[in-house]
Design brief:
The chain is of the alpha/beta class and 66 residues long. It has a single domain, classed as 3-Layer(aba) Sandwich (Rossmann fold), CATH 3.40.50. The protein has three helices and three strands. Strand 1, helix 1 and strand 2 form a beta-alpha-beta unit.
Amino acid sequence: MKVLIVDDEALIRDSLKLILGLEEDIEVVGTAKNGQEAVEICKREVVDVVLLDIRMPVMDGVLATK
């Protein structure tokens, strides 16, 4: 499963990447600090699951989901 982690807090992004990276069947394909970065990553990467924070600067998670 290919996962994208999106959160404006670097500690959250890095922690989730570390934890999920321990799983054999999960590949973290990228991290982003806002919804705009997430949308750009999704345009160029195959992503199965996006862990997306709702409240972020630039573009929030709700708008990025749309």
